[in-house]
Amino acid sequence: MEIPVTGFMISNNEDDPMHSHSLYIMSWDGKPVHVHHISGVTSFADGHHHKYVGTTAPALSGVPHTHQYFTFTSVNDGHRHEIRGVTGPDIPLPNGGHFHEFHGVTTVSGRTPHSHSYSGRTSR
């Protein structure tokens, strides 16, 4: 079974033999997709907090949906944490558009192993 997908790819570094590409999917099976931005500050733990910023994975537009997300926190106190999860369902806005709520706990890291909680709302 073939599913038509449209989009584009950007090379991040052609000179590096281990270079990577960013893939931007614009439609899936003829239906448009979209992403949201996430950002925030983790809880305070082990004497510090971390900032984070990222973009959700694409999801179909115009239907009930959630998004997966994955990013790293800022480096603080010599370490960073992974943030990953799935947003809640889309929450419609009165003038159109929508957002999603998200929350979770980071991976464990640090000289004194610990994690942080985080929560927020995606961009519209």
From TrEMBL:
<feature type="region of interest" description="Disordered">
    <location>
        <begin position="105"/>
        <end position="124"/>
    </location>
</feature>
<dbReference type="Pfam" id="PF12788">
    <property type="entry name" value="YmaF"/>
</dbReference>
<protein>
    <recommendedName>
        <fullName>YmaF family protein</fullName>
    </recommendedName>
</protein>
<dbReference type="InterPro" id="IPR024307">
    <property type="entry name" value="YmaF"/>
</dbReference>
<feature type="compositionally biased region" description="Polar residues">
    <location>
        <begin position="106"/>
        <end position="124"/>
    </location>
</feature>
